[in-house]
Write a structure and sequence with these properties.
Elements (H helix, E strand, L loop, with lengths): L1 H56 L3 E4 L5 H12 L3 E6 L2 H13 L10 E4 L8 H12 L4 E4 L14 H29 L2 E8 L10 H21 L4 E8 L29 H14 L3 E4 L2 H12 L1 H18 L3
Parallel strand pairs: 1-2, 1-4, 2-3, 4-5, 5-6, 6-7
Length: 329
Amino acid sequence: MVLEDEMDSNVTEQESLREMEPSWTTTVLLVPCVVVLTAGFFYIYGIIMSLLSKTSVRNKVVVITDALSGLGKECAGVFHKGGARLILCGKNWEKLEELADDMVNVSDPTDTFPPKLVLLDFEDMDSMPEAIAEILECYGCLDILIFNGSLKVKAPAQSLSLEMDKLLMDNNYFGPITLAKGVLPSMISRRSGHLILVNSIQGKIAVPFRTTYAASKHAVQAFFDCLRAEVEEYGISVSTINHTFISRSASEMPASKSLWSLLYTKKPLGVSPDEAATEIVKTLNNKNKEVLIAPSLPKMAIYARSFFPNVFFAVMASGVRNSAAAEPM
């Protein structure tokens, strides 16, 4: 009986092993299949996005402000390869020429157009009418205008001079809205166009030590939100893209342990220019009215500011106190 029990046990174990072999083999084969399928998905996604970027801007007149910034250069490269008629704006003529030469040297002249260059400085408001006229004269019209770039400052409110406040407002508010007003008659007459404001998440919420910067971002956000409703009947789209921070590398941002500094971070310290450019391409194709590029915590902060303001303000104040306590005496 004992021998028979042992034999039955061995048979049972062998049968169990035979049953496990197919499932184990399936698991082993499934892993590389999943990897291959995932890689294939991202490859196809990249091709689709490349095609979309080309079809959405082919032969379109695209204006990019602050084209010399990281995001400006990234967008310029994407749209140039897509066959757009680019108008690149910036403060430095020599650097604009260098950027244009680099783009022309690596592109096929049969598929692309040489970029046109316009000096544009939001700090010099007196030069704005001339710059707007030059932009409109480049091709006689424009289809897409990307408002990129801004002036940033971080300091206690009482330490900022009125001159600095005005400088920030010129760069971040009065400059962009003056440009928008200048090109709107052309878009309205053609009953088409797309304005894209690349704005900070501080157009939605504000963190300490950025009083004037946050105020300028709130102001320009409100302007474009109002404008969206006003120009919809003319077939003009207005989109805003709010991001946490745009940086080529996380190392460019200083490390901070304060509570409210976490609201200004992503992966963990910024959005790369190629990520932001991809969102701009998606926005052009989908005509999304509002896009938020941020991790979960800043998104939660936006909702907390709306529905639980007292909690939000308490967290902000606590972050300031903790930051002050951490500073060396």
